[in-house]
């Protein structure tokens, strides 16, 4: 593990880097090259999903990189159409076969799909998969606090991590506080929001200039200081390198509040309208 990337300890003892690489849309030979390059550069946490259709590219990148498998943390996710207990177990096995891996370090339920009401079955399958050695640590994605509370109530097992939409327009303060009661670490998908609008904002540009950093570095640092693990997608070596260089400066509380203030009063919240109580992904 590169020394300049700190680690966080999950509630089951697994240590994970404070930043990871998102791989959505990184596919095929170009995807393998980009992901392997990121690993060689210093990324150790790699995020994929069954529904991204690139678990094979991630697995191939792991084989081609210069880093031993045991130093990497590979995360994938269970699709909504496979929440039924037996289907979930088979899907996890297929997920491993696709990637050519013996185990995943992290595996998440991608969306709760509450109208189907099968996420408890899916969670029970994940618990079993962990017992079988398929997965080292089990978590969730896009789970509201009441869903996590139900998982704990009905199975006695809390997720180690909850991957959620989190960015300055939607800082998820209530979600983070309630998840923390179970020791659930937040992980930020879409950490830069829709990107361009925020990255061109003068308020963030002034903070970036004060630290000699880029606007994207400032926003990603905001995530890490919130205690969340950002997983920005980056295909180019330049952006991958830039996104890793977050831990040699610190934002003041006033600067944190400027960035947090993007979500105040405008009602924007979720940028894609994907409310986990309603939105379902199969």
From TrEMBL:
Q: Which residues are marked as site: Lowers pKa of active site Tyr? A: 77
UniProt domain NADP-dependent oxidoreductase: residue ranges: 19-261
What protein is this chain from? 2,5-diketo-D-gluconic acid reductase
Q: Which InterPro entries match?
A: AKR (IPR020471), Aldo/ket_reductase_CS (IPR018170), NAD(P)_OxRdtase_dom_sf (IPR036812), NADP_OxRdtase_dom (IPR023210)
Please list the GO terms describing molecular function.
oxidoreductase activity, acting on the CH-OH group of donors, NAD or NADP as acceptor
Q: Which Pfam families match?
A: Aldo_ket_red (PF00248)
Q: Where does substrate bind?
A: 110
Which domain of life, per UniProt?
A: Bacteria
Keywords in alphabetical order:
NADP, Oxidoreductase
Q: List the active-site residues.
A: 52 (proton donor)
Family statement: Belongs to the aldo/keto reductase family.
Q: Does the keyword Oxidoreductase apply?
A: yes
């Amino acid at each position: 593990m590169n020394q300049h990337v700190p680690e966080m300890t999950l509630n089951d003892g697994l240590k994970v880097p404070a930043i990871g690489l998102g791989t959505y849309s990184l596919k095929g030979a170009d995807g393998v090259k980009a992901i392997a390059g990121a690993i060689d550069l210093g990324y150790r946490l790699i995020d994929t999903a069954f529904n991204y259709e690139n678990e094979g590219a991630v697995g191939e990148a792991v084989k081609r990189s210069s880093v031993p498998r045991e130093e990497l943390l590979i995360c994938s996710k269970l699709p909504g159409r496979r929440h039924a207990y037996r289907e979930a177990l088979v899907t996890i096995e297929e997920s491993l076969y696709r990637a050519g891996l013996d185990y995943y370090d992290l595996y998440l339920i991608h969306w709760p799909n509450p109208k189907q009401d099968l996420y408890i079955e899916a969670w029970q399958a994940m618990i079993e998969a962990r017992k079988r050695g398929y997965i080292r640590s089990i978590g969730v994605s896009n789970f509201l606090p009441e869903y996590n509370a139900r998982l704990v109530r009905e199975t006695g097992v809390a997720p180690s991590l909850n991957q959620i939409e989190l960015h300055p327009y939607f800082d998820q303060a209530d979600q983070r506080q309630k998840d923390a009661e179970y020791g659930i670490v937040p992980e930020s998908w879409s950490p830069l929001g829709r990107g361009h609008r925020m990255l061109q904002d003068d308020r963030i540009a002034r903070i970036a200039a004060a630290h000699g950093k880029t606007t994207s570095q400032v926003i990603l640092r905001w995530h890490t200081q919130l205690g969340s693990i950002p997983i920005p997608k980056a295909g180019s070596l330049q952006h991958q390198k830039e996104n890793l260089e977050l831990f040699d400066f610190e934002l003041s509380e006033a600067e944190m509040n400027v960035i947090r203030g993007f979500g105040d009063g405008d009602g924007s919240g979720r940028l894609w309208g994907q409310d986990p109580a309603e939105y379902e992904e199969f």
